[in-house]
Specification:
The complex is a heterodimer of chains A (320) and B (557). With 320 residues, chain A is mainly alpha-helical. Chain A is built from 13 helices and no strands. The chains are: A mainly alpha (320), B alpha+beta (557).
């Protein structure tokens, strides 16, 4: 079967990447300066002997190799360990953050993909017109805006109209399903819009570039010579052939959805993976960091893998 | 209109889950809050802090401790004048030699699961800490010198100390310990108490304070309903919610847009706008928090920094007023000692901050022999007086503080550069990897940081003791005489003598200058004009040190 070798190779590569990431996760966070035990024992009433207690509790009294083997053993049982600061299982901490993050980032990403692709197609189709220059300029402006600044500006502009932060209105008690959905939608709108606006520019530029390249091909000239309408050429021929790099970019973007966005989550008080990672770095909460980065690694590797397979499927020019 | 419907609906919903209902927001009285107290309702509070754990033996974040104050009994609490008054304890008496104290506890209270709140719970909690000092290590320091806790009867608790202790000191330590329900926590001890830190203490929490913690969504929201079995004064509100924000500007905006009724603190930049808003009430009072300039007092990288004259000159070159004006927009004051003026009698008024005087600073350095080089930078021990100042990334305004210091130091021929580090890394660099005396505090020269002290001076005085090396000490200061005074002040029974010792210790620190206390920041709070009863103090309204605000807060007619 065409491509069996290709699939096997990509699969093996993905698995090796995940294993290397697991080891790097373990090593890198422990290389950070700053001490977990010192952090978590600094409360006014704390006693110095608390340090010994925490060191033993977190298994840090064992050698690095012992800690690594325990870590691998736990992972083999799908156990990501327990948070140093909250004692909660890492799976529930990270899982909760991922559940909070994915809808918001997905909405923003979909917006950026759709809006970016449309503006890119239009810009290429109407190249060297005001529409082209305007689209590209606007895309570049939004792409270069500091994310947190844009978020803050949108917050200020919508004061009194949209909520100021959080995932829901916790003081909306016993809402109906519709009220709850509207409430979530209102809270998600600004963070997703901010994310979408700062990201769509890359899709505009990639799509425009791919479209321009395709529109310059001989088969497009042939289609024109055959009397095909411009709109039909763009939609049926040019865009479909220009899709390949866009698909790759989309797949990579989806891979990073679970990473959240620390800047957006901070501005909008959105309890996602970005905030979790940021707080865990400050607390040197290694199990949570290891778990979050493992989830991110698997997500990125998986969607890269999907992109490779899609590419292979869509482009007959690719051989093993 | 919509918000009112929500608030009433929530009040009704909360009332149905409380043990005994009160009506929602229609009853009006002229009770403790003065004219037009409206009973009932739900207070919506915003916070820029967070909760890491609901287990008092694990929690680190400030809001966790604030929450414990409202759900658990505490023997005593701080009032608005920073005086220790009874909370669960109505009264207490000491024996003749101040080694035993007997508390008369208010009886009749129940935990939210119906079990009675008795002295057995208090004795259990304190004995638990004494028995397992490792697992209870976050609280164990507050039980220092206690040897036994005994429930004489359900309303009487007796504590025995190993030596005579100072009453104010002892009570301020006890104020930090939440009294836990024995029937819940005794089942969690595990082997050698190891289970105590593993217990997540999930919501709904069995609570004995004025409120029950019903619902907790991590990093998002905490919901409380009134505990009608509380032994103390019945709060006016049916419940309250605490919503977490990671953006202070958004939180203030939420307050202005009626998504919140009050916030725990506001940035100085928001003060003027809120004061101009007729729907807002802004409160301000001098606080006990201070920003400090640290000089390595063990082995700085440049030994001239151990010269008292250099430290004195540095203090003359720090423009504190500019810091108050720029960072706090005038909402603060110049600090003089590490025990802030807002603590009242504990502050030593004889210790005065040196004025900003560049000429005086230059004169001191000239007289001490630190001549200027060809580029204007002074020389010390054969090298230019150029130093790195370490700064934490999470202290508001620290970059501006550095700039002000840099500008002043430049005028006295000293060059400084900034190195910003996160708090964990910063402490690691300062204390060094080997935490035991005398092998650390040898990798830095100067730093900027801040302190949120406790109302009693014991804690802030402790951070410069030798024992705190590798723990709370960020100066490497170690003075045996100072340490002896520190131990003594907690055990001396005469209040005036203790005060004198505390004053002497402040003077010692001010003279040796491991810290130069630069500015005190005012406590700034805001709430909707629809609410009243907030008890403002130098430690704030919503605090781990007092239940008063949430017992007294109410809607106004």
């Amino acid at each position: 079967m065409r491509g069996a070798d290709y699939i096997i190779k990509r699969t093996a590569f993905a698995l090796i990447t995940v294993f290397v990431a697991i080891t790097l996760n373990f090593v890198l966070f422990r290389a950070l300066p700053g001490d977990t035990i010192a952090n978590l024992s600094k409360v006014p009433g704390a006693t110095p002997q608390l340090r010994a207690e925490l060191t033993e509790e977190f298994g840090l009294d064992q050698s690095k190799w012992q800690q690594y083997w325990i870590y691998l053993g736990q992972l083999a049982h799908l156990n990501l360990g327990v948070s140093f600061s909250s004692t909660e299982p890492v799976t529930s901490e990270v899982g909760r953050a991922v559940v909070n993050t994915v809808p918001m980032v997905l909405l923003g990403t979909v917006f950026s993909v759709v809006f970016g692709t449309i503006t890119g197609v239009l810009a290429a189709w109407k190249r060297r017109t005001l529409l082209d220059h305007g689209s590209v300029s606007l895309a570049l402006i939004f792409y270069s805006l500091p994310t947190h600044w844009l978020g803050l500006m949108l917050l200020l502009l919508t004061a009194g109209i949209l909520p100021r932060g959080g995932r829901t209105d916790e003081f909306l008690f016993n809402p109906t399903f519709t009220e709850h959905m509207i409430d979530i939608g209102k809270h998600m709108l600004l963070p997703s819009l901010t994310l979408g606006l700062v990201l769509y520019g890359q899709y505009t530029l990639v799509t425009r570039s791919a479209m321009l390249e395709t529109l310059g091909e001989d088969f497009i000239l042939t289609a024109r010579a055959k009397g095909m309408r411009d709109r039909t050429i763009v939609r049926r021929h040019a865009f479909r052939n220009a899709m390949l790099p866009i698909i790759t970019l989309v797949a990579l973007s989806f891979g990073y959805i679970v990473a959240g966005s620390i800047l957006i989550e901070t501005v909008f008080s959105w309890p996602g993976v970005g905030l979790l990672v940021s707080r865990s770095v400050q607390r040197r909460d290694w199990p949570v960091l290891q778990g979050a980065f493992l989830v991110l690694t698997i997500s990125v590797v998986f969607f890269n893998y999907v992109a490779d397979l899609l590419y292979f499927k869509l482009d007959p020019r690719i051989t093993t | 209109m919509r918000k009112t419907i929500r608030a009433v609906a929530m009040a009704v919903a909360l009332a149905t889950t409380a043990a005994a209902c009160s009506s929602s927001s229609s009853a009006t009285s002229t009770a403790s809050g003065g004219a037009g107290v409206v009973e009932g309702g739900v207070l919506r509070l915003g916070s820029s802090s967070s909760i890491d754990s609901l287990n008092p033996f694990k929690a680190f974040e400030q809001d966790a401790y604030n929450v414990f104050q409202y759900i658990y009994p505490y023997l005593v609490q701080w009032d608005e004048n920073l005086q220790l008054v009874g909370e669960w304890a109505g009264d207490w008496t000491w024996n003749a030699d101040d080694t035993e104290v007997t508390f008369d506890l208010t009886t009749g209270g129940t935990w939210s699961d119906g079990e009675p709140v008795t002295a057995d719970d208090a004795a259990y909690t304190l004995n638990l800490i004494l028995k397992y000092p490792g697992p209870t290590g976050l609280m164990a320091g507050y039980a220092k010198h206690i040897t036994a806790a005994e429930a004489v009867d359900e309303g009487t608790l007796k504590l025995t100390y190993e030596a005579p202790v100072n009453e104010a000191w002892a009570l301020s330590e006890l104020q930090q310990i939440p009294m836990l329900p024995e029937h819940i926590w005794s089942a969690q001890e595990g082997e050698d108490g190891k289970g105590l830190r593993q217990f997540t203490n999930d919501a709904p929490i069995v609570s004995g304070g004025p409120f029950v913690l019903n619902e907790y969504t991590k990093d998002e929201f905490v919901q409380f309903t009134r505990n009608d079995g509380f032994y103390g004064p019945k709060p006016h509100i049916d419940g309250w919610g605490l919503k977490f924000f990671t953006n202070e500007d958004a939180m203030v905006s939420a307050l202005e847009n009626d998504e919140l009724d009050a916030v725990e603190s506001i940035p100085a930049a928001a003060l003027e706008k809120l004061q101009a808003n007729p729907n807002m009430v802004v409160s301000e009072t001098p606080g006990i928090y201070f920003d400090d300039f640290i000089t390595n007092s063990n082995k700085p990288l440049h030994e001239e920094l151990l010269d008292p004259k250099v430290r004195e000159a540095f203090e003359y070159a720090i423009d504190r007023q500019s810091m108050v004006d720029t960072i706090m927009l005038g909402h603060g004051n110049i600090a003089s000692t590490i025990v802030s003026e807002a603590t009242g009698d504990w502050h030593n008024p004889d210790v005065q901050p040196l004025p900003f005087d560049i000429d005086k600073a230059n004169q001191i350095l000239d007289d001490a022999g630190y001549a200027r080089g060809s580029d204007g930078t002074r020389m010390a021990n054969g090298h230019p007086m150029e130093y790195e100042i370490l700064t934490p990334t999470d202290v508001t305004g620290v970059d501006r503080e550095f700039e002000i210091i840099q500008s002043g130091f430049e005028q006295i021929g000293v060059k400084v550069s900034q190195k910003a580090l996160d708090s964990s890394t910063l402490f690691d660099v300062m204390a060094g990897p080997e935490y035991s005396y005398p092998n650390s505090y040898d990798k830095f020269d100067l730093a900027l940081w801040d302190w949120y002290p406790l109302p009693d001076p014991d804690f802030i005085l402790s951070v410069v003791t030798c024992e705190q090396w590798g723990f709370w000490s960020d100066t490497g200061y170690c003075n045996k005489q100072y340490d002896a005074n520190y131990e003594k002040q907690g055990l001396i029974t005469d209040q005036d003598q203790r005060k004198q010792l505390v004053w002497d210790m402040q003077a010692q620190i001010a003279e040796d200058r491991p810290y130069i206390a630069m500015i005190n920041r005012n406590v700034l709070e805001a709430h909707s004009a629809k609410w009243d009863g907030f008890v403002m103090s130098p430690i704030g309204s919503f605090t781990a040190y007092s239940k008063l605000t949430l017992e007294q807060v109410h809607q106004v007619a």
